[in-house]
Amino acid sequence: MTRNDRPALFEVLLKRVAAGCPVVVIRGEFDAARVDEFEQTLAGLSPSDRQVEVDLTSVTILDSAALGALLRLKQWCERNGAVLALVAPQEYQIELFTMTGLRHLLDRPR
Amino acid sequence: MTEATDHVLLQVPPAPESAAIVRLVVRRLAPWLPPTALSLYLIALTEIVVNAGQSHAAAGIGSPIEVQIELAAGGAVTVRDTGGGIPPDVLTSPRTQDRPTGLQLVRSLCSDAVFSDEDNGTSVRLPYPGSAQLSNGDAGPLAP
Question: Are A96 and B40 inside 8 Å of each other by CB?
Answer without folding.
Answer: yes
